[in-house]
Amino acid sequence: MTSGSVAGTLAVAQVGTVATRYVGRFAPSPTGPLHAGSLVAALASWLDARAHDGHWLVRIEDVDSPRCVAGADQWILRQLAACGLMPDEPPLWQSQRGPRYQAALDRLVAQGLAYPCACSRKDIEQALAAQGRPRSRHGERVYPGTCRGGLNGRPARAWRLRVTPGIVRWNDRRLGPQHQDVEQEVGDFVLGRADGLWAYQLAVVVDDADQSVTQVVRGEDLADNTARQVLLQRALGLATPGYLHTPLVLTTNGEKLSKQNGAAALETEQPLRALNSAAAVLGLTPRGGPTATALAAWVRQWAESYNLPRD
Ligand code: GLU
Description:
By secondary structure, the chain is of the alpha/beta class. Helices cover 34% and strands 17% of the residues.
């Protein structure tokens, strides 16, 4: 992909006649401190925003509260600051935004685009088995649509989006054209649970829109969620931002480096060292200190030749 042009054309996105400024964000889940893999996504989203003379935001995605670790949010913010990655506005916490997610869900339900579901995992498995359908995709069961026609007196456990048939197409600035048949591969997906937990898909779409995010830059492990998010944006009448999914840092076994497989907390006593490792994953030239000088050089390199490796 050639990129001077990619970088250049995104500085000001035209929506109708209104010029919209570039807004990017880094949206970590506070399930632990940043590690070498999450710094790649943070650095890429920061560089992309700076290279487009845009705004860069940090959003703490603590919507899945059982997985959150106390104090991890502040730890992440300190790690970002130590690396010189400072947001342009105070961070947003998803745990404070329940009323916005509720308003979006209410709107979808009122329009018949979302519906309550009473099914447990076991119910879903049994329905799929009865239909002779494959049990799972990436360990997720494709929802068979049991409650589309009503709850039949059973109590609601969750709300689901009524997924429209057809292939969802979207473009990734690094991976190229992407597509997914969400109805066949995922089915009607959960937006929120009756016990008050909001689903990542709904929260991220509502927040990106409320924060006027124009470019989503995040790790490639999240690319698989994008088609669902595009469907939700359409259902809510929201604009679809641009997407760039960054390369992952892999363990020696070839798995994605993550908190689950024991990724070490990012060492920020030597921020330039951590940043140089992340920059290398993004195909950027190693730099000496001070940190601010290295970051400024990478912003120029990113703006001149956006050339993420294709792997
Ligand atoms: N909170 C998500 C994570 O840490 C990222 C969500 C996103 O960037 O859309 O994996």
